[in-house]
């Protein structure tokens, strides 16, 4: 294994990944076709692109499917499986069905080999073990953090790199997926994420810069970049370009300057004036690409925006050096909505308890944006991190719908318990439905139970510590 030559991080994981790659190479001759199934966000699209190139280099017949999780896994995979030529291999990239569904699938189609190249927490079937034709490379099974240490595209890149060393030329794709999934500064990357970024940098596929990180608007002139920033969101500017221009003029900085034009003194003056130390850091660019596609965070954001509804168009973006006008307009609309909605979120009345915050967005923010706002409110730490966040309101079905978020600090303070544990306890007490993972989830409850929920939430959260 090449990576053993200069760095070993998790030997058990690396050994299993290497063994899986060798098994795939040994088995490939028997497969009538390979099925690649991946998610539709930036992490999934870039993972799918890596697997596609890997299979092309091997000269294998394959079909590729982008799945946005809009239907149940059981309906999706069983209907799709009817058309597969047996024996085949299914590669799940940046998503995976539960262990129970995989076991059910293999009972019906025993000649399918399954390769799980996904980083989300795996839902094991407690009553059944996987047969030998399932190769589960999920890094969380080996004690790795599936976000901070190894996102989906990093895992898929490492797998492709094990299959064929020529695939090292795809490291730049991993940078895109990381930018979209970690939502963090490059200097905070760890473990395998950091390792792959370093490789892409050494190969000259990416460039690393220090300075202002107004993620969301890095490609724009400075006043617009600051007002468009969604990571960090700048509360004092409220997305207002005029406020950004006035602030810059006060600092004797030309608002027309690009972020790359600023000297160290100007950078420090902007950061200090806004009192946002997280505005300063490192960012990645692609030397041959322009505009939105020149910057990794913005590139990833655009792919995620496009990919949900049109995965083929998102794939096409990976081959371009500049963004078509229609997609640039789409990007601005989406980004500006996030900034506007975060501003609205901060101004709305909130129910605050010892352990939680409730924000009713009914008729304030479009329901399609609730989950997105929950994520960016959490990432930007614009509410008390020691509390769970519930944002939502009345849904058209007549129930109340909530996006629920917890910070890493909240989970640390509650014995490793987070969103999924809270939602489970709520639905046990009040009915309804929902689920998620430690940091994020969603749920629905009867409106009549909302007052009870806000009154009992502290007891609910306290109880998860004892379960």
From TrEMBL:
One MF term in the entry's GO annotations: nucleic acid binding
Residue runs in coiled coils: none
InterPro entries tied to this protein: DHH_sf, DHHA1_dom, SSDNA_exonuclease_RecJ
Database matches in PANTHER family: SINGLE-STRANDED-DNA-SPECIFIC EXONUCLEASE RECJ
Name assigned to this protein: DHHA1 domain-containing protein
Organism: Promethearchaeum syntrophicum
Lineage: Archaea, Promethearchaeati, Promethearchaeota, Promethearchaeia, Promethearchaeales
